[in-house]
Amino acid sequence: MAQNTLLICFDFPPNEGIGGRRWAKLAKGLAKLNTVVHVIKADPKKKNSTSPWTAEVEDENIHIHSLPRTYPEVVSDPGNGLLDKINYRIQRYLLKQKTKGTIYDVAIEWDKLLIPKALEVIDRENIANLIVTGAPFNLFPYAAEIKAQRPELKLLLDYRDPWLLAVNYGIPGLTYPRFLEEKFKQHKALAAADFITCPNEFMLEEIKSSDDFRKIKGEYKVIPHFYDQDDINQYLVQSKPSPEKIKLVYGGTLYMGLEPWFKKLCEALDQVKASRPELYNRLQIDLFSKDLQFATWFENHQEVIHLQTPIGKELFTKITEANACFIFLAHHNKDYRTTKFFEILPFGKPLVYLGEKGFVSEFIEEKELGWVLHQPEIDFIQVLQELENDTFQASNQFDYKEFSLDKTSEMVEGWLL
Predict the structure, then answer these.
(1) 195 pairs with which residues across the strands?
(2) CATH second-level architecture of 5-223?
(3) Of 46, 172, 321, 351, which has the maximum CB count within 10 A?
(4) Phi-psi category of 350—alpha, beta or left, where left has phi over 0 and alpha has psi -120 to 50?
């Protein structure tokens, strides 16, 4: 029998932000299994754009509670004016005084609002399970405090990103005392958890190895990324890409550390333009990402590469119309199959991998899901020629159906019963 669950997700829809997608979908999946899901999230930012996943959580079994933000927005989203810059410096100084760990965690001091609200909802709604997803990672020790007051709760902590080994959130630049504070916070959280989850085995091993205080009692499990069959049913159409263009598409984060690979891509495009100008003129590469600062890398190929802001679910239409889909991974996530990896597969599009060699590139080659550009300036021309001649045959070596939202939701529900 399904049990009432409380989910704490800082930027849950209608808040924008990629962090909301994973648990918006899983809340939808759990609600479909008759689990009543209460959600505590932060109020949207002042300049919030509505999340494309908002409709996913409009369900009679999903109830959303929103709390004011406590983190100074001038730090999370700094402005360019003189007063903004002065206020930014002041707020950074104050953050350093009030926190012992990283100052770049938007849940700093949110516990003052979160914990009383969580206890209220737990008691009123007869909550049996508490699920908390990070980043922001201060939510994890806050969850430990909630469980200390309601020890009968089952607590699941879900890492969407690395914490102590992160390349962001201010972690790499921490002094040793501040880094040690983050280690203490993580251990406090892990010691309270019944389940510690993340999207893949590699991160799971990193989490295990990063806690060296004592053995944790909770179970370590993988909740892989997944696709939603509802999206496939809505956007998958049986049509071939336009013969006039060779279209490649990418949607999602462009990670730090990809700059050398963007340079290699541009060098490969230089080769295509010089040796096959007619092929170059047919090429269209659409990148949909908030990381528009990378546009400078593609200035010499603006007629081919179009870096644009995200378009939500309309990305599925672009995938349908494309000949292939790019996968970009930097060194720190070369072993992580992202959300988009699984969302692309049901469309039957070949993958073009550009990035560090690792589990994902090996997986693509082993399962014959597309191409890995080991030498982009050479390999990319060959890839385009195969796309031009439509000679790629999708492999049957990988059953993507095991990574559906329905199967993943059933798995999670089974742990919580």
Answers:
(1) 156, 219
(2) 3-Layer(aba) Sandwich (3.40)
(3) 351
(4) beta
Give SS3 for 100: coil
pLDDT of residue 240: 63
Segments making up each domain of the chain, as ranges: 5-223, 231-400
Fold of 231-400: Rossmann fold (3.40.50)
Strand-strand pairing, 129-134 and 154-159: parallel
Q: Which residue has the tokens 């007619």?
A: 278
pLDDT at 332: 84
Go through 101-124 and write b for each residue having 16 or more CB atoms within 10 A of its CB, e for each that does not: bbbbbbbbebbeebeeebeebbee
Report pLDDT for 48: 76
The predicted model scores a pTM of 0.86
Q: List Cβ<8 Å contacts ≥24 apart for 112-120.
A: 112/70, 113/67, 113/68, 113/70, 114/8, 114/40, 114/67, 114/139, 114/142, 115/142, 115/145, 115/146, 115/149, 117/40, 117/65, 117/67, 118/6, 118/8, 118/40, 118/146, 119/146, 119/149, 119/150
The Cα 321–Cα 342 span in angstroms is: 18
Cβ atoms within 10 Å, residue 31:
21
Q: Which two tokens stand for residue 359?
A: 């589990």
What does the pLDDT read at residue 36? 97
* Neighbour order of strands in the sheet with 37-42: 62-67, 37-42, 5-8, 129-134, 154-159, 195-198, 219-222
State the 10-residue block means of pLDDT for the chain, 417 residues long.
Answer: 90 88 96 97 88 92 97 87 89 94 97 98 97 97 98 97 90 95 95 95 89 78 93 74 86 89 94 94 94 91 94 88 93 86 88 93 92 90 89 75 93 93
